[in-house]
Amino acid sequence: MKKLAGFLFSVLISLPIFSLPDGFASAKLGMEIDALKEALKNDHQFGYRGDRDVSLSPSDGQFLIETSGSQYGFSFLDRCWFQFANDKLYIITINLDRSKLDHYSVFSKLCEKYGNPDELSPQKSVWRDDNVILSLEKPLTLKYTDAKAFENKKNSSNVQKTTAENARDEFLDSL
């Protein structure tokens, strides 16, 4: 009985304390472009200036909004990008202001809130659940990705691996 209780306790403490967030502040994954524009107008930390911050990729109809939080007074945000696919926000990329925050502090807070990362490398730490992929990348970038939309885009991609990528995979498989 004690072994079972110990096992259940260890499982519980290894689970994230909270589920992963679906975005940052007023920007939430899955938002439509007009809803995001309105949210960004009302949240000054992003530094949204209106439609001049929006660009369109004519080949595939994808929208990108780029903002600069640092231009509007005190903000912990530097540059931010909001990427849309199928008219829904599916990636939020936030460069944090390195003069006000450091990588270790952000990493420690994310571990405290969401547990240890699912992936850890010198370049980035990644937390995942069924809906969100949250990554902290060096030097100091937070990225929120809609996991389902990302997987759909990846599966629909027709991009073939290069010869170098295939050779790398073969080498790694031989280890």
Which helices and strands appear, and what pairs or packs with what?
Elements (H helix, E strand, L loop, with lengths): L1 H13 L8 E2 L2 E2 L4 H10 L11 E4 L4 E7 L8 E9 L2 E9 L6 H12 L4 E2 L3 E5 L3 E6 L3 E6 H10 L6 H11 L2
Antiparallel strand pairs: 1-2, 3-4, 4-5, 5-6, 6-10, 7-8, 8-9, 9-10
Looking at this protein, list some descriptive labels.
8-stranded antiparallel β-sheet, 175 residues, alpha+beta, 5 helices, globular
Overview of the structural elements:
There is one protein chain. The chain is about 30% helix and about 30% strand. By secondary structure, it is α+β, with helices and mostly antiparallel strands. The strands form 2 sheets. The chain has an 8-stranded antiparallel beta sheet. It is globular and about 55 Å long.
Low-confidence stretches: none
Major sheet strand order: 3-4-5-6-10-9-8-7
Overall pLDDT:
86
- Give the fraction of residues assigned to helices: 25-40%
What is the count of helical runs? 5
Strand content: 25-35%
Number of β-strand runs: 10
Cα Rg: 19 Å
Overall morphology = globular
Secondary structure category: alpha+beta
Largest sheet: 8 strands, antiparallel
Distance between the termini: 42 Å
What is the string of SSEs from the N terminus onward? HEEHEEEEHEEEEHH
Brief sketch in words of this structure:
By secondary structure, this protein is α+β, with helices and mostly antiparallel strands. It has helices at 2-14, 33-42, 103-114, 147-156, 163-173, and strands at 23-24, 27-28, 54-57, 62-68, 77-85, 88-96, 119-120, 124-128, 132-137, 141-146.
